[in-house]
tRNA N6-adenosine threonylcarbamoyltransferase (Dyella agri), 334 residues
Amino acid sequence: MLGIESSCDETGVAILRWQPEAPGRGLLAHALYSQVKLHADYGGVVPELASRDHVRKLLPLVREALAEAGLQPADLGGVAYTAGPGLVGALLVGAAAGRALAWALGVPAIGVHHMEGHLLAPLLEDDPPEPPFVALLVSGGHSLLVEVKAIGEYRILGDTLDDAAGEAFDKTAKLMGLPYPGGPALAKLAEQGRPGVFRFSRPMTDRPGLDFSFSGLKTQVLLAWQHSDKSEQTRADIARGFEEAIVDTLLIKCRRALQATDTHRLVIAGGVGANRRLRAELAAAGEKDGFRTYFPRLAFCTDNGAMIALAGAIRLAGGQHQGEAVEVRPRWNL
Ligand code: KG4
Ligand code: ZN
């Protein structure tokens, strides 16, 4: 299975030999090209530039992955591509290339939901989680708590009412003058921050429910930053306070979701899943409360082709595939 990811600013390609008992062992190759430098001058992703760069990089990456796997195109048995949600032009590049390759090779193609890709990414690790589990999906575009009764059977328990967790990281970083992409930069800065100097609220944890809201935190940080001495140490202290607020909020809601569903396995995925404090705090809470945590390796938290190849392989094995139209869904609920 060839997997193609092109929903935003990363071109990801991977080749996976499907083996249900240990999916990660079947990963033969994966290649990624990040457009971060291209968009840095603009402080965010420029959709048209993203599409054009996917056009330039996609086929060379496919060749690279085939070479790494020691395969010829004719060895491929199927092609999976991200069909949404994401930037329409960027998605169309992956969909058109994926569909065309599948047609030329006479193999089935399948359009994959980007968030299902994220959700399944922990299955690429050794000792993968078995459903039922609860998944916390935290990326630049989404903050979801999902009950996974079986692969493909998802119930949304909680969603964000405004900014996604990653978006909150990015916007907060930007307003404190950190370079794009802000999330990882803010997390790095937070390591130098002192605990307890700034304390921000844990939004929506004082009432029942599993939804999130992160946009108010951003405003709290803005006010704190504007009224501060703007020194490097203060910036780090604010970053620390902000990160703690987000991590704490996510932890509280995860605990609630596990209790509400009487589940003992928690999967964390999506770009914010790469956050060290989040990983450490959730793992520690799991040991204390008696639930197990499952994370993808760091490279498979953020966007990648491997998760798309896996989601596509699972769906194809389940008998699903697509007609020949190149169709994408920029907005698409899981
Ligand atoms: O999953 P992803 O690569 O793309 C989307 O599907 O959105 O997630 C990207 C998001 C960005 O908002 C980025 O700032 C955030 O994940 N992110 C992080 C970290 N690494 C990436 N946020 C906090 N801490 C990190 N270490
Ligand atoms: Zn993503």
